């Protein structure tokens, strides 16, 4: 199955419905579409915003490599990944992954794999802006994210 | 050897610059060598590379380990563990 | 976390974007939204349509039980399942599951669990309508679907 | 015992009816007994229940096994393995 890969790194919000349509509209060989949208949370009202820094050029290249790996491992017809950068306030979307396949398990696994690898390998860094204190900390990488990515490693 | 260096997140903040062009001496042959050499430049670099084990590196937009050779590299980037997604 | 469960059984198409909005809009505690949409495939041009028969009353009750189980197993803020019945042509959506959570793994697993159980426990039956031959067969249950549902069984 | 019976998919087609109200004799106490008793009614029922092991059953909108007791049941449904989703 040939897989159409779409990668975008952008400051502006995205339209998940429009991206889904691009993967399914006008075709009758797609049986399953899984989308993941990651949002900025307010952490109990303490977070005012996140600012996402990224490495232009490498971000596109690395997410492209992750997507190629997913397309090689699962029978996908389409795979889209959009990652925003810049200042994002709670409730706004940060990242979208959409995977289309003839088989539901392939779509679920590819989308989950993409997210685990985006978290641990895509060159983005989140800085927090706390309510009432504009000087926040850089978010620390989580060991649980490394463990999640480790699940996909072949023996 | 002439290299384009790029710094991100708190590595960038501690060094006080998003990047620079540098000539590095011939004995600096690996990413790890480069980290040690940079850490001696001044207090900002020393703070950025105080815990070299947690510093991630990329050569020409690809992740590399600290034992990677610099030969042929154009752009070398240093940054903390990624927190995207 | 209290989980808002929405179940609908209907002949008409659904609006995945609208359902997603209901799970995320106006709230800043949702970090992850996973949606699954299942489509009717044309099976290489041989399938003209599927007719989905269901057991009214039990369909709602059984999907409700599956959703309650998912809400008990994963920390979800919302879980929506919509299943269509009647005649559906290739390219049209059949089923939607959307799971919202503060954690991505919970949202992925709950949506995948819902689909595996919908496939094997929700009282729906698909009859095929073949191109050029209006008398098609009933779709046969797949052992792979039973195996997929079996993954979630507790020891 | 008086029961509302419901049939779906090819069970419905073979029996030729979506359901019926029936009085079943007292010796029919389980779902499995009911399947055997129905299978003897006529050729359509016999075809519907020719492979009783693959027939699924529900009592009052809940899945049950063939050894489930009919006592207290109002509506009993028979159908093939589900193929929704």
TrEMBL record, chains A, C:
Enzyme class: transferase
Catalytic activity as recorded in UniProt: 2 [molybdopterin-synthase sulfur-carrier protein]-C-terminal-Gly-aminoethanethioate + cyclic pyranopterin phosphate + H2O = molybdopterin + 2 [molybdopterin-synthase sulfur-carrier protein]-C-terminal Gly-Gly + 2 H(+)
Biological processes per GO annotation: Mo-molybdopterin cofactor biosynthetic process
Annotated keywords: Molybdenum cofactor biosynthesis
Chain coiled-coil ranges: none
Family matches, as Pfam families: MoaE (PF02391)
EC number annotated for this UniProt entry: 2.8.1.12
SUPFAM superfamilies: Molybdopterin synthase subunit MoaE
Top-rank lineage group of the source organism: Bacteria
GO MF annotations, alphabetized: molybdopterin synthase activity
Pathway it works in: Cofactor biosynthesis; molybdopterin biosynthesis
Its biological purpose: Converts molybdopterin precursor Z into molybdopterin. This requires the incorporation of two sulfur atoms into precursor Z to generate a dithiolene group. The sulfur is provided by MoaD.
PANTHER family linked: MOLYBDOPTERIN SYNTHASE RELATED
Family: Belongs to the MoaE family.
Complex and partners: Heterotetramer of 2 MoaD subunits and 2 MoaE subunits. Also stable as homodimer. The enzyme changes between these two forms during catalysis.
Name the record gives this protein: Molybdopterin synthase catalytic subunit
Source species: Afifella marina DSM 2698
TrEMBL record, chains B, D:
Database matches in Pfam families: ThiS
InterPro entries membership: Beta-grasp_dom_sf, Mopterin_synth/thiamin_S_b, ThiS/MoaD-like
Protein name: Molybdopterin synthase sulfur carrier subunit
Species whose genome carries this gene: Afifella marina DSM 2698
């Amino acid at each position: 199955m040939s897989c159409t890969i779409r990668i975008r790194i952008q400051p502006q919000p995205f339209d998940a419905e429009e991206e889904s349509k691009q993967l399914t509209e006008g075709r009758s060989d797609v049986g399953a579409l899984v989308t993941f949208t990651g949002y900025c949370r307010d952490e109990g009202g303490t977070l005012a915003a996140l600012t996402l820094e990224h490495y232009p050029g490498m971000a596109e290249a690395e997410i492209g490599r992750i997507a190629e790996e997913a397309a090689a491992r699962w029978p996908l017809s389409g795979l889209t990944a959009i990652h925003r950068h810049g200042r994002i306030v709670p409730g706004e979307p940060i990242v979208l992954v959409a995977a289309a396949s003839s088989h539901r398990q392939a779509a679920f696994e590819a989308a989950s794999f993409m997210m685990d690898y985006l978290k641990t390998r895509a060159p983005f860094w989140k800085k927090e802006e706390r309510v009432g204190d504009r000087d926040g900390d850089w978010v620390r990488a989580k060991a649980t994210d490394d463990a999640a990515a480790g699940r996909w490693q072949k023996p | 050897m002439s290299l384009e260096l790029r710094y991100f997140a708190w590595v960038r903040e501690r060094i006080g610059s998003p990047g620079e062009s540098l000539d590095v001496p011939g004995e600096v042959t690996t990413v790890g060598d480069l980290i040690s050499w940079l850490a001696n430049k001044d207090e900002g670099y020393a703070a950025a590379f105080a815990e070299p084990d947690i510093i991630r590196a990329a050569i020409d937009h690809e992740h590399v380990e600290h034992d990677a050779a610099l030969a042929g590299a154009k752009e070398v980037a240093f940054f903390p563990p990624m927190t995207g997604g």
